[in-house]
Every structure is written in structure tokens, then in C-alpha cells.
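Students often ask why inverse folding is considered easier than folding. One informal answer: many sequences map to the same fold, so there is more than one right answer. In these notes we will look at a single instance of the problem. The structure comes first.
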């Protein structure tokens, strides 16, 4: 997780309250933002993204989503955006 100055207003993933533009908030890719005190609370409750690996073990659907994103990044970096998006679309099609 990273401490950032929010460029846009957002919603705290812990308390659901709003975060303001230019507010200093914690941010994690794929998760969203947390108020500073909320990040500490979420960590105590075991809901912070830093404990993501535990969720990966417990939630196969979530783990699959994470793998899909990793695949996408790999394909994009290796073969380009067009290829990565074609693969992703094919996957979504197969899921239905
Ligand atoms: Zn909050």
C-alpha cells in the first residue's frame, strides 16, 4: 500500500466515507483508497490489502481474477495491448 495525495475524490474501502481530492490517503492497486486511521483499523481487522495473500488462499474466484490480471499485464508487456485485450475478451467469452 502507498500513501498518496488523491487526485480525485473517492470512497474509503473501510468505512465507506468519502475521501477528498488532495487528501493524503492510503492506496492499493485493485483495492482503492483508505483514510489513514481506517487503514490501521482495516489492518487490525485483517481486511487490509497487505493481507492479500491470505485471501488468495481462501477465495479461488478472487485468486483467478488476480491471475487473469497478471496474465493480461504479461501479455500486454510481451506482445502489446491489442493482443492482451484479444486474449482477455476470449476469456470473458468463455466464462459466459
Ligand atoms: Zn474511512
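Output (designed amino acids):
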Amino acid at each position: 500500500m502507498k500513501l498518496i495525495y488523491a487526485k480525485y475524490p473517492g470512497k474509503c474501502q473501510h468505512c465507506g466515507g468519502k475521501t477528498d481530492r488532495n487528501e493524503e490517503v492510503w492506496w492499493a492497486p485493485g483495492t482503492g483508497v483508505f483514510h489513514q486511521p481506517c487503514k490501521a483499523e482495516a489492518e487490525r481487522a485483517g481486511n487490509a490489502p497487505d493481507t492479500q495473500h491470505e485471501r488468495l488462499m481462501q477465495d479461488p474466484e478472487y485468486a483467478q481474477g488476480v491471475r487473469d490480471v497478471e496474465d493480461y499485464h504479461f501479455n500486454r508487456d510481451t506482445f502489446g495491448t491489442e493482443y492482451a485485450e484479444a486474449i482477455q475478451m476470449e476469456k470473458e467469452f468463455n466464462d459466459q
